[in-house]
Amino acid sequence: MAVVFEKTKMLTDVPFHYCPGCTHGIAHRLVAEAVEELGMQDKAIGIAPVGCAVFAYNYFNCDMMEAAHGRAPAVATGIKRVHPDKLVFSYQGDGDLASIGTAEIVHAAARGEKVTTIFINNAIYGMTGGQMAPTSLEGQVTTTSPYGRKREHCGLPIRMSELIATLDGACYVERVSLHDVPNIIKAKNAIKKAMKYQMEGKGFTFIEVLSTCPTNWGKTPVEALKWLKENMIPYYPLGVVKEEV
Amino acid sequence: MAKKLMKGSEAIGEAAIQAGCRFFFGYPITPQNEIPEYMSRRLPQEGGVFLQAESEVAAINMVYGAGGSGARVMTSSSSPGISLKQEGISYIACAEIPCLICNMMRVGPGLGGIQPAQGDYFQATKGGGHGDYHLVVLAPSTVQEAANMVMEGFDIADTYRIPVMLLGDGMIGQIMEPVEFADYKKRELPPKTWAATGWDDKTRERAVINSLYIEPEQMKVVSERLLKRYALIKERETQVELYNTEDADYIIAAYGTTARIAKSAINKARQMGIKVGLIRPKTVWPFPDEAFSKAADTAKAFITIEMSTGQMVEDVRLAVNGKKPVEFFGTLGGFVPSTEDILEQIIKLKEAHE
Fold first, then answer.
1. How far separated are the first and last CA of chain A, in Å rounded?
2. Per residue in A10-35, pLDDT tens?
3. Using a CB-CB distance cutoff of 8 angstroms, which residues of chain B are in contact with residue A45?
4. Which residues pair with A52 in a beta bridge?
5. Is A132 exposed, middle or buried (0-12, 13-18, 19+ CB in 10 A)?
6. In this model, does residue B1 exceed pLDDT 90?
7. Residues B165 and B24 in one domain
8. What mean pLDDT do residues B16-31 have?
9. Averaged over B14-22, what is the pLDDT?
10. Which of A67, A186, B101, B302 could form a disulfide linkage to A75, CB 3.0–4.6 angstroms apart?
11. Which phi and psi (to 5°) does residue A101 adopt?
12. Residue B184: is its pLDDT beyond 90?
């Protein structure tokens, strides 16, 4: 019988621990396929964050490091400076990257570190149980914004892609979404292109991936995809924010 | 190689380079800026990388990445900056990443001042960050010894996969002394097959540099492994200098800058006929307990002298274990004790415990 589909070898056989309907699984697969298709599996070093993807080192079938909360871009910097010929990527959530790790991500981008950051934005802290993230939308109810996020109390969500794109060291910044198949294909292409630019030494590359958290949003997986499309994309517009290579 | 007159901080930098360190990540803070400045000048000449990080927090995590991917790497800072690095040091200790961290202590707490002090002894020797761990902590008292300890420190780090701290103070960093870089004889070191360098060598396991062990059984295994390693380090790497202790009735315990001043005071006291000696821990972790417990059999009394409110004195008391009295004298505010200060303490000690 002809094989029509095979799982990428860049993923191990360890079952994902993610909740049903969570898009981390898709994002993992896209990153893994991109690395494999670039032929970089044996030359890749990935960095897992603190957050839901903390166990990413169990899933990506390449050498991996687990970083302290928010520090993945600094760890990536250390690795890449020692191994300039390797593909170095960090995989970080919104609490990790857009809150506690803002200094590290901004300066890695400013220095033009030749690494790729995959930024999972699901507008909530997943691992710790649904607290407000710097990316939670105005009015969004979370366990630490039970009356909804209020602008006058804690401001509006940070658009990280636009922020990173202002820095000269960042050469490619794109925001993608995982809410339907066409967008998933676009997301994969963006991730692959970012890694390609990295290996060509073009500069810092950053892909923001809009994702769902059905468990902490209190929605079914299908409702969550719809919520992402209707609520997140208007605030976080999709597409290339910057491509200067 | 001929002797060169060098500032302590620069000698530390040069020693690191001669020991094969090619990566340095740091952030400016007084009184140790000469270390990053020296490295920024020298490392590019040697094909290495000096990178000024955005913070101490980032710098130590760059060390995590570089060390975790197999490089001989270091960072340096001074007290407030070392506090910022503690999160990363705890992760490095658990992930078993070798590296060298240099702390040229200044007076504290808080921003404190920029004068030399020894107030970070607790932080350095009892862990420093969260969780159960130790660093190997080397405490030089001369520029030459600082250079030697840097070289040896890298080897200790690689031998045991442990972060090593060079615990100096502003004085050691700032003074100029003749220093000789003897041919560095690297120890025989295990290959870093654990490092995350890209998995092209499939004869080894996939490398995962990690400090997360969510299953209690796994965390226990890691802690037990570290505990065993610490016992081995205590057995093999404890270093202490004994100065005029053979016949000593009175023993001074001091390390680093205070120890060198204590020696001058001891020489004067000996001329006055007081039998006083010095036990100088060169490794403050592991602490040389045996030297103290042995001396406690014959000496009449001890005094610990520190530029702090009294930190190492606790370890001295544990080692002496109640056999003899252990007094304390400390200078505060960033003041360095003078020979006369210490001589006065020796005379007082003698009068109290004759």
1. 44
2. 999 999 999 999 999 999 999 999 99
3. 69, 196-198
4. none
5. buried
6. no
7. yes
8. 97
9. 97
10. A67
11. -105, 25
12. no
Instruction: Among A43, A54, A74, select the one facing B65 at the smallest CB separation.
Output: A74
CA-based angle B261:B265:B271, to the nearest 5?
150
Cβ A78–B87 below 8 Å, yes or no? no
Number of structural domains in chain A? 1
Q: pLDDT above 70 covers what percent of chain A?
A: 100
Q: Span B312-341, mean pLDDT?
A: 98
Q: Are residues B245 and B264 in the same domain?
A: yes
> Has the ipTM of the complex gone over 0.90?
yes
Q: How far is CA B319 from the centre of its chain?
A: 19
Looking at chain B, the whole-number percentage of residues with pLDDT higher than 90 is: 97
Residue B229 pLDDT > 80, yes or no?
yes
Total domains in chain B come to: 2
Tens of pLDDT, residues A135-166:
999 999 999 999 999 999 999 999 999 999 99
Q: Cβ–Cβ of A77/B62 closer than 8 Å? A: yes
- Which residues share a beta bridge with B100? B74, B164
What residue type is B335 in one-letter code?
F
pLDDT score, position A1: 83
Look at B68 and A78 and tell me if their CB atoms are within 8 Å: yes
Q: What share of chain A is helix, strand, coil (3-state, %, to 5)?
A: 40, 20, 40
Question: Which string of DSSP letters, residue by residue, matches A40-61?
Answer: -GGGEEEEE-SSGGGGHHHHBS
The C-alpha atoms of residue B304 and residue B29 are separated, in whole angstroms, by 29
| Amino acid sitting at position B99 | C
Q: Specify the DSSP element, H or E, that contains B341.
A: helix B339-352
Tell me the CA end-to-end span of chain B in Å, nearest whole number.
49
Residue where a domain stops, chosen among B190, B212, B237? B237
Give the minimum alpha-carbon distance from B151 to chain A in angstroms, rounded to a whole number: 20
Least CB–CB distance from A81: residue in B49, B57, B59:
B49
Burial (CB < 10 A; 0-12, 13-18, 19+), residue B274, is middle
- In contact, B101 and B165? CB cutoff 8 Å: yes
Q: pLDDT tens digits, residue range A64-102?
A: 999 999 999 999 999 999 999 999 999 999 999 999 999
SS3 of A205-236: EEEEEECCCHHHHCCCHHHHHHHHHHHHHHHC
Beta strand B23-26 with B73-77 is parallel
A6 within domain boundaries? no
Instruction: Looking at the structure, tell me whether residues B253 and B211 fall in a common domain.
Output: no
**Residue B132: strand pairing partners:** none
Kindly report the average pLDDT of chain B as a whole number. Answer: 97
